[in-house]
Amino acid sequence: MSYAFAEPTDGLLCYQSLDDPSQFYYLPAAPTAGDDAGMPSLRALEDGVTLLTLAGEWLADRGAVNQLQAAVAAHHPELNPDLIEIDAAPPERLTLDRMELTLVGDDGKRSILAALKPSNIPPFTTLFNVRLNDKQAKRARAAVERGAPEVLLLTLHYALTVGVRANAHVHVDFAALLARYQKELALIDAEFPDEPPAPPTEEDARRLLDGGFGHYAKWTTAVVPRHLGRAFAAAAAEDARAQAVKVICKDLSLSATAGAQANVASVIDVEAAHDGAVRIPSGAAWLSATTDLGRQVATARQL
Asked: What is the pTM of this model?
């Protein structure tokens, strides 16, 4: 089974819910021709052409779904196997662009016979009725009647929207930061002894925070799923940084007040999170999943 969305295996794709770690969703790895009446068939018409018909579906194999529960439990030993839930991916998270029927010629050249919009509800049925000339019909017959591979292909183009959660943590050793700030104030006081020190600003706090990265200030970020949402991680980190700047500015002001040092924490910890959704793939591209209909015909005849 697959847990990284881009790696289909065993006929299924699987991903974990953000809101409930025991909830998993699956997708079929590729479309298929529907059973029985949905399988590809050829019929000669009176006008001398041949009609190729089939019903394309995007339906998960029930046997693979039944095995997915055990596979997820084995992959996630930290979860209680009795609480693991496996469901089909919500249709509202899916965007189906088109299902294509492609014929591969004797020379290996591919020609798209038809490209249709699938149904909006599972199993996203797409009905094909394609008129073929003699040459096309002869080639298609190899797949439909003899189960020849690499002749007749069914491809689905789609996208999935998944939730993304990014967390950021800023840790500041305020005692070290304060010591640096006080050294800066001492240098300013030595140069301008007759001028009172200016109160700390957020710009001072930001400069001290950024200048202490790797020394007295540390950032950590985490994104789920890990291979998605870099922009969310950056947004969470910036939010945590902005919060830390405000706390630093306040504590610098407090530390400058006589007798207020006791109210200033020696360590500052700030956390921020950003939730959102990411389309896979990004932009205007589509994921593509293809089934060899000839192989499906050959397998069905063996059952």
From this structure: 0.74
